[in-house]
Amino acid sequence: WVNRKNRGVTLFTSDTPYIASEIPSLQEYNHQEALAGNAVARDLSMNISGGAIGGAKYYVSGQYYDQQGVITGTYLKRYSGRINYEIPVTSKLTLKFNLGITATDRFGTPTQTLTSRALNWSPTSPLLNPDGGFNSIWDYRYGIGSATLLNPRLGTVYYNPRFTLAEINAGLNDFESSQSRLNPLLITSERGVRNSNTSTQILGSAILNYKFNKNFNVQGKLSVNQFNSLLQTFIPINIPLPFVTYRGQANAGNSQNNSVLYQLDFSYRKSLSMNHTINTALVFSAEKFVQSAQRSVVGNFSNNITGYNNLSAAIPQGISSDYTANQLVASIFQFNYLYKKSIVVNLSARYDGSSKFAEGNQYGVFPATSIAWKMEQEKWFKPLRNVVNEAKFRGSWGLVGNQAISAYATQSTLAPNFMIWGNNVQTLGFSPNRLGNPYLVWETTSSTNLALDLGLFNNRISATVEYFQRRTKDLLLQVQTPPSSGFSSLADNVGTLLNKGLEITVNFKVINQRNFSWTLGGNLTMATNLVEKLRTNSPDEFYSGGFLGNNVPTLRITSGRALGSFIGYKTQGIWDSAAIANKPASITGVNEGDRRFADLNGDGFLNDLDRTWLGNALPKGFGGLNTTIRYKNFELSAFFSYSYGAQVFNQFEINWGTMTGLNNVRRDTYARRYRMIWPGMDAKLVEEIRESNKTATAITPGTTTDQRQSADYFIENADYFRCRDISLSYRVPDRIVKKLKVQGIQFYGNVQNLFIITRYTGFNPEVGATAGNSFNRGMDNGSAPLAKAYRFGFTITL
User: Fold this and answer.
1) Considering Cα of 160, then 165, then 171, then 172, what sign does the dihedral take?
2) Distance between CA atoms of 183 and 128, rounded to whole angstroms?
């Protein structure tokens, strides 16, 4: 507090929030524990299969899954069922029906949002007031004693009497206007926001198969996929959430996603002789996708009784709807040739057409070929079979297409404009709201794979070594457009991307006896990524996202570097008094205790020219390890995963890993802070501070410089080793099972995410791509931790 006052930062006019005698008696709250708890899951499933008179076959299954969320007040319930039925109509004609239905009920709010709010909330300020109401003061302005005021929107407010009422009201306004300041219990409490998402998915298909003879077969298929969801949210009238026009707001949104697939297959298989076999197939398919959505928003409810179940009880605020449709047609040809069971050659080609592209660019041809040589089948290999019982060489090359753009990305679209005239809403007309690109073409990826499969010592050791290379051309990406265009972005084919690497898999049967066995296995993938070229405006680079609150970019895509490359400033510790005294006159606006950035080009200015490459979000290597031990009727298995060489931009560190604002901070950040020296300090304390400041990396409280810069200070090592799964099962002996007149009984126990070894300070180092942008990687804005889960159960086979 003294730092802020002496640095000229005017946050509040009040003096110290706590005096020294009060600090030891302050109560400390763990808001993460208040939100999280032990979640119980129930998983019940049953399946029945068999045959009937006439050769019919059937399979019926059902599942009920109930998972309470680790965040209080959240849950997931899922009901699913499946029926497969196959009946031979004649000796050559077979009819199959498949039907699957899944109903899901989710309730709650994303964990990431809640954990970030809980961490930002001051540990000396509770989430609930003494009267049971929601606390609205998130920092040290919370009350000591009984100073209260009655706010017409928030109810009773307990405040620290050392602050003026004007300062308290300013904090309450901040509470109502900022998402990050909201009390997380407003979301998770039974009296809080209700967020319900229910969905139903129906997957059905009918297959008619006619076998002309043993060589020639024709099959027709009709498949339907229907997915409907309903998202409902209700904000009670007593809860102040930002951007809400009326107290008490509800919205309901429906979405429907339907697809229909028509497919016709012709296949022919013929053994020309003992050494030659061919297998060909010709497939024609057409698929249509339709998406539609509707949304209604109302506000100013008079009570909380009906919630989102009666939207007519409030004032309409907005109505919207949407409809998109696209089609995909394909013709596929395949040819397989087998020679002496040792050489397999495959040739194939696809001819695809997508309505997402403009006329003239809708169709693409995508060929592929592969060969496999089982060398152990050759006569010359016989002397090696005592050691190498399997040796197969595989090679393949193929071209695949990608149409991952919106249905109307090639077309410019319009949106209506409105105005209020008296008490009515008038439509003025339509104006462009999206810029189309009619020159978009298929994104294509050519893949080359070379592999060697080995089985050694009667398959006690099996190994695979595979080299892969994938080159993607005409990369589809949403890119920024010049401000003069009037739009922020458009879809474009931006360049060429190369991925290549080596994958190694090894499995070892350490012990292989009748009543005792032990297997070990693992794999390692080492990959590199390179942007070979970009087809963009000068310069030959662009930012792919990862923008901080002040629009500072953290990721840059440029030719000659990998995707997920971080860009920003290099830090040089903290500005101390000596550095400030010797700084160039061109560097202004810094104070003692601010973070110091390197002037890399030495021109005396800190600007974009001083940004440099800071790391990459893609790992250099990743893989997994697995082991299984079987002893009589017991089985113990474990699976581990690991990754190394990747970095993560810990964006959340800006909020609770620095000393710039009023947020809660980590204890280790507080210990690493730069400490100021003021006149009148004890000489011994001054020496202690000077020694501590030599290694200080966190800025001093009260800094005036905006520290939301992309810098190496926020980039962390993301290496990890995680225990994914450990399972122990026991199979009841057959002699007992037979007495119970069942086929089998098994008991099992399982634990997931038991531990992780990592130096990353966030919740989870496995930070992938941002939703909706596969190139915006490694940005952690409070990723949710993986929950540790314990499962116990049994299966009975009748």
Assistant:
1) positive
2) 9
